[in-house]
## 1
Amino acid sequence: MESSNPSDRRGEKYRKNNELIQSGAAEQFRKFIIESAKDFAIFTLDLNRRINSWSVGAQNICQYSEEEIIGQLGDILFIPEDQATNAAARETERAAREGSAKNERWHLRKDGSRFWGSGLTFPLQNENDTIIGFVKIMRDLTDQRRAEQELQETTERLRVTLESASDYSIITLDTEGNIEGWSKGAELSFGYKESEAVGNYGDIIFTREDREAHIPEMEMATAMREGIARDERWHRRKDGSRFYMSGTMRPIYNPQLAGFVKVARDMTEQKLTEQQKDEFIGIASHELKTPVTTIKAYIELLQDTMDESASRESNSILHKLGAQVDRLTGLIQTLLDTTRIAEGRLMLQSESFNMNELVKQQAEEFAQLTVRHNIIVQPGQIPQVWADRERITQVLTNLISNAIKYSPSGGDIIITTEVENDSVKTGVRDAGIGMSPDTNSKVFERFYRAGNAQVQTFPGMGLGLYIAAEIVKRHNGTIWVESELNKGSVFYFTIPLDIR
Ligand code: ADP
């Protein structure tokens, strides 16, 4: 029935026009989608699952041309394993029953290769709502699937690695320092189960003193500043007992800071053994000191009381005896220094002095002891330094005696001084056996002696440079070596200028 209202009539006309436009547009739109969607395979199937339309995208993905595929069973796109279980039929049945069927599975291309297809199947109905076929829209997600599988594999491998590294505690923290990941090794070492640890602030593994001193926060700050924070300290278990751990902490960037990972190892046994060794060295050297001092005193007494009539031979023997006892005293002193360092009892008595004077004096003394070497001092223009003169003498004598010891064929030993930044840098160069580059950083470790056979023939305990390095460190200086095998070495150390 025509409406008498003009505006209603206008509305009716508009609706009709619009329907016309829409049906035309819909047709075009459908065509556009099917033709241009190169990444989507879109095709229709009849009720017998024979393909009756095929998009450009379907051609791209499945490699069949329209002529090749029209009329074929859609099942040929399924892999043999799925064909055997009638997966294609089950898919259309489900679509018919439920209105749509979602599917993710491996499919077959014409050349037999496989792709991961992610798709949806819908039933197509006529105006009586009778199902006349199906439309399937599918995307090739092989790359994503592979990436996903690789990620899964990597994650799994990482998980297994973490679990099997039971000697190591591997802990991940978020940017605030809260525990996010807790490995099997961490469970074993700290006694907290993963469920107990995760979510807690990372300081639960620290002793109270370290928590109060903000060590956990300092560790994160160092890791962020330097890319890594190395650490050796006593930690705390869930039951309150303590154990010694050595480890590293690194920041994780993604690309901003995403958290931290800490890898640590229980070193309690090694630490206790080391402490026992230190204790033994301490006791032994202390016990040795008294008799050796007494022997020295008796030798001096004998020398004083020996009259003119004593033979030159007796005098010489007594002199040699004295020299050997002096060596023994030196060795005991070295051992005592080692225990002092281990117990943090190395005291400094700093004063202002001139490094050039010290160097010249030492060079003269050593020149008396060697005929093969030429000890040359090349002093720079340097101001006074502020340091413990006796301890710095110890460093210098150690470097010069090593220079002599490790250059058995002789040659020049050159001692230099110069100002560098706020320090005086002293160098001791020899033309001796040198060291391989990997050894250079290790020589300052306790008891370290280079492994080359040559060194084994030189007497020593591997403590001199360790003590020298500790003394220099206590002065806030640095010590290092530049050396090459068979080409000689230069040891350098810096000590601060007197800036009072
Ligand atoms: P020691 O001389 O008693 O072995 P040190 O701590 O003084 O102990 O030195 C540690 C090691 O460093 C030595 O065993 C030697 O291998 C190496 N070393 C030290 N000085 C030199 C040098 N001038 N040339 C070559 N090697 C050296």
Note: Residues 398, 402-403, 406, 430, 432-435, 443, 448-450, 455, 460-466, 489 surround adenosine-5'-diphosphate (CB under 6 Å).
## 2
Amino acid sequence: MIEPKYYQIENMHCGSCVAKIEASLKDIPNINQASVNFADHSLMIIGSASDDLVINTLSQVGYRATLKTFTNNNENFNQETAFLGKSAQKFIVALIIGLLLMISDYIYPYIPALDAQYGQITWLVIGFISLFVMLFSGGDIFLGAWKTLLKGTANMDSLIALGTGAAWIYSMLVVLFYQYFPTIAHGMYFDTAVFIIALVKLGSWLEARARGKTSAAIQRLIGLQPKTAIVVQNKQETEIPITAIKAGMLIRIRPGAKIPVDGIIIEGESAIDQSMLTGEAMPVTKHVNDEVITGTLNKSGSFIFKATQVGGETTLAKIINLVKQAQNSKPQIGRLVDKIAAVFVPIVLAIAVSTAIIWYFVGPTPSYLYALITAITVLVIACPCALGLGTPMSLMVGIGKAAENGILIRNGNALQSAGELSTIVLDKTGTITKGLPEVTQMFSYHGFIAADILKLAAAAEKNSEHPLAEAIVKYANTLHLSDKNEDVIIISNFKNFPGKGVIADAANQTLIVGNKTFMLEHKINIEVATPDLKMITTDAATPAFIAIDGTLAGLIAIADPIKDDSKLAIQQLQQLGIEVLMLTGDHVDTAKVIAAQVGVNDFFAECLPDEKHTVIKNLQQKNKIVAMVGDGINDAPALAQANVGFAIGAGTDVAIESADVTLMANSLQGVVHAIRISKATMRNIKQNLFGAFIYNVIGIPIAAGVLYPFFGILLHPVIAAAAMAASSLTIVMNANRLRYLH
Ligand code: ADP
Ligand code: MG
């Protein structure tokens, strides 16, 4: 996987910037994907383009970007705090001056009139104080507007700069040439200009604060990794920083310590709390040769493990990477909004100009003043912040929330699809059942001796990784059948047939182990086993036949118990209105019993791995939006074909990268949870977009003065600025509601 790089974009003010930045990077070779997240002002680049190239390209279109590093967590944090501090400062200065001007102007007529003694000079001073505050607090807005103007385009900065600039210039003209203006037009708008800047800054301060909170999930994950570890070298134990740990080093874990890197226990054992990653509350007992994962917590035991994956290779690093990438991705709905935001600004400019023209010609006197004020109000009210924030804010909170529950959602599209599912196909083994099959019964035929057959079967199955194979080997081991060195069975010509079984040569005999289909394929007569087969399958166990040199020698029953909460989870899925199906390579009768036990109405049995993929495809052709839940490795083609592939129980696995949704815990409950979070997030996004849309649909006409002819209502530009800040705030608050989802 190519590691994505992240850049922080400093001077990004509105949703219309998103499409512009992405477009500027689109045609650069060595950039496969560029995606801007407006909620945290970050840019994600996948590709091999150099940092300089990216930063230069952005500066050409008017944006300052810096490379973001997540290892240097403190630095990012300091940057973010500094930014927050600066935004607050800018807001407060503009607010105080704006308030002072407003109070003295309207409430206490302390300031002399223009035609009074010292009137003109006083107002000139006020004008320049206002200009100073506008530039101090809103300098970046004017600069941004200027830069985009040079390129012949416009953005949100342009709207604000034009609105406040026009208010200031008009007021200055009145001060300088008051004789030529009627007295009624002497109402100056310096306070308005300053106040609008104050409110815009209030908006960006609130956004920056929310941004800090939305990345909390990432911060929490980063915080899981301890800063130091105790290394054992030549029987000496020394504490070193985790960055100095290399694969192969031996690390001592004391009671209560966090695991610093991924590895394998080589001495001792302990119960480990993995809940921070998997969401599973029960600690897991780990022995020698078991894997331990970075960031999990050792309970009371003490052990030594060998580091296997360090640095960016640890499971935790991969999870963090995935969550970051997902938060930066966009569901389809988000792309649509970016397109709208890009054309939004020119449309608003056109509306503002039309408004001014109409007021100028049909408005009351002084009509030029009404034309000016209504145009300014339209410019200020229509800033597309809310529109741009709606999708990424909710997505970041939703994906972060899921991550905290051990659910890794790969990207926005997966989230969108997971919220729209009509059908879920569950793999049986390891998904509905525990995936820890055990041999429960054994039968032998045609004079073969059970112990001998088992010994042979175990020798062959040692070469297979199938859970059934492991069950056979384990059973043989517990009976001490394969311990004695003198009769080790030599296996040759081993062949694995996925979904069927294995064939191998052992001690001059040809051995076939597998299911009924596999036996029939090799013309093995299994009639003698019919009653036993019937009994095994009605017990929900899986049959494994063993044939030696073309004759059926034995039959092993392997049972895999159903997970405690599978039935409940399936019920909950059905209550969400989703059709639940089961899919398995197992015997049809076994499948029937299991399906009945967990309440699944329909199932597909005896499917070969590639047939599983076809089952999904056929469902999709019936216009169903299909999810597949499987263990991520065996079921890879089916997981890939499904609209959403859920990999289950991948907590200790590297399979994180292969599925749309990875469930760290080994429970179907995670699927229910993931779907609930996805549905809630999509609903939240739609609410935000609807809100932003309605706000503009209602706000712009009122700002333009459509209510004036009927009710005499005109909005003051400051009210428009307040409405704009309020609309952003509403979106931030609505997105944050997702945090309290259960
Ligand atoms: P599932 O869908 O239950 O995960 P698979 O597709 O992996 O099943 O396998 C389907 C069937 O093929 C198993 O139920 C079993 O009967 C048979 N089979 C596959 N591999 C082996 C093996 N190594 N030994 C015995 N039987 C096997
Ligand atoms: Mg399977």
Note: The two ends are 33 Å apart (CA to CA).
